[in-house]
Amino acid sequence: MKCKKCGRKAIANLKQYKIALCECCYPAFYESLVKRSIKRHGIIKRNEKVLAAVSGGKDSVVMVSVLKNLDYNVEMLYIDLGIRNYSKNCEKIVKELSEKIDVSLNVVKLSDYGFRIDDVELKKVCSACGTAKRYLMNKFARENKFDVVATGHTSEDIVSFAIKNIVGGNIEWIGKLKPRIEGFDVKIVTKARPLFERMEKENMLYVLSLNLPFTIEKCPNTPVNDWKEIVYEIESKKTGFNQNFVRGLVRIGEKRGAETKYCKICGEVTSSDVCAFCKLVGRYS
Ligand code: AMP
Ligand code: ZN
Q1: Distance between CA atoms of residues 272 and 31, nearest Å
Q2: Which of 55, 84, 87 to mutate to test the pocket of ligand 1 (most atoms within 8 A of CB)?
Q3: What is the structure's pLDDT at 170?
Q4: Are 121 and 127 contacting, i.e. CB atoms less than 8 angstroms apart?
Q5: Pocket-forming residues, ligand 1, beta carbon under 6 Å
Q6: 71 and 65 Cβ atoms separated by less than 8 Å
Q7: Summary mean pLDDT of the chain
Q8: Range of weakest confidence among 89-93, 155-159, 226-230, 247-251
Q9: What is the DSSP letter of 24?
Q10: For residue 212, is pLDDT > 90?
């Protein structure tokens, strides 16, 4: 298989886009996809100062590298959560990345607040870790005058979370599954997920193509995510499933968030100026 752009040996055959690319041509193609998402969904504005939360895993490594290559004003944040050897190993990777891509790194230690994730009882570890991360990202960003906190969440993260919660009958989260969540209070910094339409395998190809440092070590506390396995399986049978799903979620959010409008002709509730029924009447009567 040959690269469609330059004819060299292709490393990836992207079924969804019907294109095969080599490792030299792939990164620019991938970046153009992220650029389009950011623009289409207004995920990050040009003048905003961005704090990229980087764990050392491939997804957040890709996120910050792409933002840097797209010329955003970006710095990194690494949170040392105090998880056995894992936290120190990840910090080393993130430091290496910071030097390689020339983006400055800020490090916050949970132990400065008097405890580590290793001190939390096993049953509560994941929820405590999530709470600590969200709290520290927001506080650091606000105190250091960042406009946006960006994370490396992928479409699989979002889709698996959505399915898990739909099955659990819990749908309050729906407004949160958007690529950009404005801070609803002066103390809350806007959150951005520039990779929300991207898949993990696309991210893997990007880090490998550019030889970026990243860790394959999994957090020793993270249980296997069955929902994610299911999501991979569906995607393998139905190309584009993840992308369609996350785009659908954005539309649900838009509809829910919009103020109620009334039809200019008949006064019934509508999503545009004239309701669909009056449009039919106008056309066929
Ligand atoms: P997770 O909650 O582990 O699925 O991670 C989701 C996102 O949170 C990652 O893509 C990163 O952007 C960010 N993140 C996770 N762990 C850390 C960390 N220790 N320091 C900074 N950012 C992190
Ligand atoms: Zn090529």
Answers
A1: 34
A2: 55
A3: 86
A4: no
A5: 53-55, 59-60, 77-79, 81, 133, 151-153
A6: no
A7: 94
A8: 247-251
A9: T
A10: yes
Q: Which ligand is nearest to the CA of 11?
A: 2
Q: How far is CA 174 from CA 17, 125, 157, 163, 250, in A?
A: 28, 24, 14, 11, 9
pLDDT tens digit sequence for 24-53: 999 999 999 999 999 999 999 999 999 999
- Run of H or E residues at 60: helix 58-69
Match 């927001």 to its residue by tokens.
138
Task: Write down how long the chain is.
Answer: 285
Taking the CA of residue 152 as reference, the ligand 1 atom at the shortest distance is: 10
Domains detected in the chain: 33-258 (3.40.50.620)
The two structure tokens encoding residue 141: 């960003």
pLDDT at 224: 86
| Model pTM score | 0.89
Q: Which long-range contacts (CB under 8 A, 24 or more apart) does 138-143 make?
A: 138/187, 138/188, 138/189, 140/51, 140/77, 140/106, 140/108, 141/51, 141/77, 141/189, 142/187, 142/188, 142/189
Residue 256 has pLDDT above 70, yes or no: no
- pLDDT confidence band for 174 (50 / 70 / 90): confident
Beta bridge partners, 77, equal 53, 106
